[in-house]
Every structure is written in C-alpha cells, then in structure tokens.
Amino acid sequence: MTDNFSDPASARDYLCISGALPDQNIDLFECALALAAVHRPSVVIDKYRQHFQKICDDLRVEFDALCAKNNGDSATVQAESLRAVMTRDNGYAGDVVDYDNLQNVDLMRVIDRRLGMPITLSILAVSACRSMGWDADGLNFPGHFIMRLEKDGERLIVDPFQGCKVLQASDLRQILKSNVGEEAELSGDYYEPCTARETLLRLQNNIKFRLIDTEHYQEALEIVDLMTLVAPDDYRLDLDMAVLLSRLERPRAAVEHIGRYIEKTSDDEEKAEAEAFLLELKSILH
After folding, report:
1. N or C: which end of the chain has fewer CB within 10 A?
2. Cα separation values, 216 from 27, 97, 191, 221, 223, Å
3. Is the pLDDT of residue 4 over 80?
4. How many whole angstroms separate alpha carbon 137 and alpha carbon 131?
C-alpha cells in the first residue's frame, strides 16, 4: 500500500484502508503516523517520514560497522546498533518527568521532542528494526510496552523507554510489580508478540483512558472512532462507544452500539452486564 496521506482527511482514509488489510500487511509506523496526523492539519507529514528514513539509514551504517567489529550478526549486535542510533545519536528517551502528557502518545510530537511513552518509542524502534529485515516484535507486557529481538535462537528483550536497555528477568519483574502490584509474577503470556492492530489499539487506549480520567468524553469518543477504522471487527469497541455516548447523554446512539456488542460477544457474563446496561439506557428513552 502506498503511503500517500498528507492531511487529516487522507490520513483517515489511510487508516480505513489499513483496517481492511491482513494484519501482517499493516505498516505500523505509517498507521501510528496517520493516527497523529488526523489531529494535526497544518503539519508537513513528510518531514516525519524523512526522519524515520534517516534512522533506518543510520541503523544500517551502525549495524554494518558492528557486524564487522564482531565478526557477524546477532541479536546482541542488533540491540547495540539500535541503542546507538535511537539513544546516542538521536537522543530518544522515556518521558519520566511528565509521563501522562498526551504528547508522549502522539508519534509526531514524540519525534519532535525525542520523548515518549514506552509504546510510541517501541513503535519507532520496532519499525526501524523491521526495515532492516530483523525479527522484531512489540510484546504484550502489562503496563509497559517493550520489544523483542531474535536472531538464531538468541532472544533479547529491549526497552526503548530506558534507552534501548536490554532487560533481564529481574528488570522485567521490577517493571511488572511497579505497574501491576507486588504480588504479580512473570507469565509466559507477557512475552507474546503484539500484532500491529493490537499495538495500535493499545496506543490509542493510552489516549482514551487519559481523556476519560479528565472527563473529556467527546474527545475520547473521537479516539474510539479512529480505533474502529484500524480494527473494524473488534466488537469491544462498540461497548466503548456505548459507554461514552451514554456519558454524553446520547442514549439512543448508545443503545445501537450496545446492541451490536450483545450480538457479537460470546461471554455469558459480558452479555449479562451489557443487557443490564441496555435496559438502563432504554429506561432513559421512555
């Protein structure tokens, strides 16, 4: 698919087209860029593509030099190359001072400021690694998005938020407990790769939850609308839409979405809760 969006309208079109693609054909960087571009009508989008291309070009140069120095390729060489280009040369870092700032979830502002959340920095890093043909994935780790590099049986967990640090089990345990609770323990599920759609939805959920926390329900609804473009078959988004529409005192529209959710969910408990919500909404209409 060609990367031909240049303004908010064409960015939405790009997301809609991407949403219809098989997951493996979704361009993670371009979709994250499009999600940012929807809100930035006056920005020249190509300058962000040019910056990303420079990262990819510099990564190739750094990687070739390290391969020559280390007599070949490995996950360790890849991780060292990534750290050199992302952190040393471009100064990317996690925003530990103002973590919840929504600029940290906007890929354009992350590139402008060289600061971001774990997921935005990981999208940039994973995309650069994949441009090299490396086996790189984001991981479904709770509360803190990280990535994995794999080469010839060597697997490394890398955290772009911490300057592309290679994480050990003790590091992962500390991150988990600080985000989930002291009783939490590492699970194999946390090392499962995220698909492109899952990654983009998780990115947007960061925005949605922060907007809901500050009671900006209309803006949160607009974020969920963008999520439906990327993942049109994700029925859980109908529940999000229904809840937000209810908070915006639009019960008739909320009924439509909760009805769709009830039709699609196969979980009995979820269905029962949704049906109770539906009755509550209908009582408002009568």
Report:
1. C
2. 30, 23, 33, 9, 11
3. no
4. 12
Element (H or E) spanning 269, and its range? helix 268-285
- Name the band, by pLDDT with cuts 50, 70 and 90, for residue 3: low
Residue 1 token pair = 């698919």
Query: Tell me, which fold does domain 196-285 have in CATH?
Result: 1.25.40
CATH 1.25.40.10 residue window(s) in the chain? 196-285
Looking at the chain, which residues constitute the CATH 3.10.620 domain(s)? 62-191
Q: Distance between CA atoms of 45 and 43, rounded to whole angstroms?
A: 6
Instruction: List the Cα angle 202/220/184 in 5-degree steps.
Output: 40
Nearest to 112 by CA among 48, 50, 161: 48
Amino acid code (one letter) for 221: L
- What pLDDT, on the 0 to 100 scale, is given for residue 7? 94
Residues 178-230 have pLDDT tens digits of: 888 887 888 888 889 999 999 999 999 999 999 999 999 999 999 999 999 99
Give the CATH number of domain 62-191; options: 1.10.3470, 3.20.20, 3.10.620, 3.40.50.
Answer: 3.10.620
